[in-house]
Write a structure and sequence with these properties.
The complex is a heterodimer.
Chain A (H helix, E strand, L loop, with lengths): L3 H13 L1 H11 L3 H19 L9 H22 L13 E3 L7 H19 L3 H11 L4 H8 L3 H21 L5
Chain B lengths: L2 H10 E3 L2 H13 L10 H27 L4 H30 L6 H29 L1 H11 L7 H27 L3 H7 L1 H20 L1
The chains are: A mainly alpha, B mainly alpha.
């Protein structure tokens, strides 16, 4: 039985980094109900694994990304097996844009286009590349991405470059908003 | 538009967190985290049940053949039951060991490879073996019971009856599969049996291998 101190420490860390749970759940879940389920499952797995967390071995955020992504990828694969063959991340109903007060209509449209392109882009990725892109979008270093995913830093750089090229090619072929 | 523009879009949006905040708060306050279902929990309990059945079958089968060395009919049935029990134990023990080894805090690729390997073994080896053996294992069990009540299992009539029962079991399975296909459950059957599940498990393994190599 784990102590109350452990639980309090866990709760504090989870509150501090809860954004990670929400972002990962938002990227891998198909709808709002799925997202809630997934967020709950990630939180539960984080708590189960917390006993083995050693801050000398990994940063808390690195550890958290690993657990959250492992749970989310397994969840997405199970969802596919149970009938949904495609992943539909980032349901627009789950999102809200950070609308600055000074935004003009033109700026708002541009922003919406970018977000729509982001949705379409993530939807085309498989589960593992989705994890890679999520970590990149979260501004994680190549070293941390490599650590979370279990591949080399060179491999991270190569994959990101490849994704960038593919994205550029796709965008040239089909202009966003066209 | 490139990946850096995507990064800008990512920072420009935020997930609606109201519902999620409440969800996490409720979980933490109710301390339900330990009880929340884990993806592998049903598999874990299923394997424990299989292990228990295997142990019972192996003990009964072993005790039976060991105490009936002079009765070839009972001896054979006891050995078959014993072997099937051991098979169930080996499969369950292997799966429990693999599940136990899965540490979600390990790098994503390692864990996904382990999970895909576990699933691939289950759909490629375990399910077909259990399906085939399970269709016939009731025959030696029934024979043992009858033999212990004094029925002569080697009488021609009884052997014919045994073979006919086995074939009837096989035929019944074919009829059930055919009927379910007719009723529109074809895809479900394929998914449960080797075909689609194996393809998916292999596709997942391929995807992981490719991702690690590139």
């Amino acid at each position: 039985m784990r102590g109350r101190l452990d639980q309090q420490r866990f709760e504090a860390l989870l509150r501090e980094h809860r954004r990670i749970v929400f972002k990962v759940a938002g990227v891998y879940a198909r709808d709002r109900h799925d997202r809630d389920d997934l967020a709950q499952e990630i939180a539960a797995q984080l708590w189960r694994s917390f006993g083995r967390f050693d801050e000398r071995c990994a940063k808390f955020t690195t550890w958290m990304y690993r657990v959250a992504l492992n749970v989310a990828i397994s969840y997405a694969r199970n969802a596919r097996r149970s009938g949904a063959d495609h992943l539909e991340p980032l349901d627009p109903a789950q999102l809200e844009t950070v609308a600055g007060p000074g935004n003009t209509q033109h700026e708002a449209m541009e922003r919406d286009e970018r977000i729509a392109a982001l949705h379409a882009f993530i939807a085309r990725l498989d589960a593992l590349n989705r994890a890679l892109v999520l970590l990149y979008l979260e501004d994680r270093s190549h070293a941390e991405i490599a650590d979370v995913l279990g591949i080399s830093e060179t491999n991270v750089a190569t994959k990101l470059n490849r994704i960038k090229h593919k994205l550029r090619a796709d965008m040239t072929a089909v202009p966003i908003g066209a | 538009m490139d990946l850096d523009d995507m990064k800008q879009a990512w920072t420009e949006m935020s997930l609606r967190q109201d519902g999620l905040e409440a969800l996490l708060r409720a979980d933490l306050h109710d301390r339900r985290l330990d009880r929340a279902r884990g993806a592998l929990r049903p598999l874990w309990w299923g394997q424990l049940l299989q292990l228990a059945i295997g142990v019972v079958l192996a003990i009964c089968g072993g005790a039976l053949w060991a105490s009936h060395l002079h009765r070839p009919d009972v001896l054979v049935c006891g050995v078959v039951a014993h072997a099937y029990g051991v098979l169930l134990i080996v499969f369950a023990a292997r799966n429990l060991y693999l599940i136990h080894r899965i540490d979600y805090a390990a790098p994503v690729l390692d864990i996904q490879r382990k999970l895909a390997g576990l699933r691939a073994f289950r759909v490629r080896v375990e399910t077909p073996v259990n399906a085939v053996v399970g269709c016939f294992i009731w025959i030696p069990v029934l024979w043992v019971n009858l033999a212990l009540y004094g029925v002569d299992l080697w009488s021609p009539g009884f052997v014919r009856w045994g073979i006919a029962s086995g074939l009837a079991g096989l035929l019944a399975m074919v009829v059930v599969v055919w009927a379910m296909r007719r009723m529109g459950y074809a895809s479900k059957i394929e998914d449960q049996s080797a075909g689609r599940s194996v393809r998916r498990a292999e596709a997942a393994l391929d995807e992981i291998t490719r991702f690690g190599r590139e």
